[in-house]
Amino acid sequence: MVQQVTKGIKISVETSFEGTFYKDYKIQFAYGYKVTIENQSKDTVQLFARHWIIKDALNNETIVSGEGVIGKKPVLKPGEAHTYTSGCLLTSPFGAMRGHYNMTNLNTTKKFQVVIPTFKLSAPFALN
């Protein structure tokens, strides 16, 4: 698990390898990840967008940006947390993801970014 706190918002990420399959005659490596967003600040905040940079071992890079997470824009009061799961596909057995969430402090209406720390994606059979 990796964790990081930015402006009182703690991000924790756990990953899992989900398996392989073929798509368009190419092998794909499927990974899942569980993110917990915990508000350790004294203000109420809302997540309104996400930005991911996904890289595989072949140096292929995919950028994913959009509103909310899994169709939601959670509001977190002090001490509250939001957990969700998602996944991605890579064309190699190793990779990494990083990014940020765009959030608004609902007490001050100021927008800010919360860092999603880099986390590794690796197929267990490919490890030494």
From TrEMBL:
- InterPro entries with a match to the protein in the record: ApaG_domain, ApaG_sf
- For the ApaG domain, which residue ranges apply? 3-128
The superkingdom of the source organism is Bacteria
PROSITE patterns with a match to the protein in the record: APAG (PS51087)
Provide the GO biological process annotations. error-free translesion synthesis
Which residues does UniProt assign to the signal peptide?
none
> What is one Pfam family matched by this protein?
DUF525
Stated name of the protein: Co2+/Mg2+ efflux protein ApaG
What gene name is listed for this protein? apaG
